[in-house]
Amino acid sequence: MDTGHALDSAPRPWLAPLVFLGRALASPRRFGAVLPSGEELARTLARLARGQTLVELGPGTGSVTRHLLRGLGPGGRLLGLELDPGIAALLQRHLPDPRLQVRLGDAGGLEAHLEALGWGRADTVISGLPLRNFTGAERDRILAAARAALVPGGRFVAFQYGLGLLPELRAHFRLVRVVGPILRNVPPAYVLIGRP
Questions:
Q1: What is the mean pLDDT of residues 65-79?
Q2: Rounded to whole angstroms, how far apart are CA atoms 105 and 80?
Q3: Which residues are within 8 A (CB) of 22 and not within 5 positions of it... i.e. 6 or more apart?
Q4: How would you list the strands of the sheet with 122-127, edge to edge?
């Protein structure tokens, strides 16, 4: 299935960063950055995703989502779990791909969303959430939910603007690897990969 046309011809693509900026300024703790992920970071995250059932926590306006869909096979599926209703609506409108399901909800309830879709477990969970901005209890809940949602041999892939999350990631995942920093991103980011 060729979905490149739909992904590249979204109406008013210049609007997404402006919407993201407005939401980020209104709720900096939830967004963690004032701009969507850059192209190099998005390509890196998509390259690290494995399998045909993917989850993206905090897809925002879709800068990473577009790359995930480009790398996903015709039988693949992607759940975008977003907390902000306005951002979720924008994402759904700008990426009309049948493989993408955008749902409103908290990342800590990931398993319930997968179950409601009848998808079972995910091969890869990709996180764009600013986890260091959350409380320790919130981070623990999200990381536990991500691990529980993975198939055996699956992977959790998150980007962060520092390495402060490493101890908590190591508490939840057996193997942890760091990629980066990705310098051509604003701000520079690290990609953390956890394996159960």
A1: 96
A2: 10
A3: none
A4: 100-104, 77-82, 53-57, 122-127, 150-160, 189-195, 175-182
Q: Are 191 and 180 in contact (CB under 8 A)?
A: yes
Provide the token pair at 48: 């690290």
pLDDT higher than 50, residue 196: yes
pLDDT, tens digit, for every residue of 21-46?
454 445 544 544 444 568 999 999 99
Helix axes 85-94, 15-26, angle to 10 degrees: 170
User: Is omega for the bond preceding 96 within 30 degrees of 0, making it cis?
Assistant: no
- 59-80 as b/e: b if 16+ CB within 10 A: bbbbbbbbbbbeebeeebbbbb
CATH of domain 4-195: 3.40.50.150
- Residue keyed to tokens 């520092």: 162
Contact predicate 43/65, CB 8 Å: no
List, for residues 115-147, the tens digit of each pLDDT value. 999 999 999 999 999 998 999 999 999 999 999
**C-alpha span between 91 and 62 (Å, rounded):** 6
48 Cβ contact list (under 8 Å, min separation 6)? 124, 155, 157, 179, 191, 193
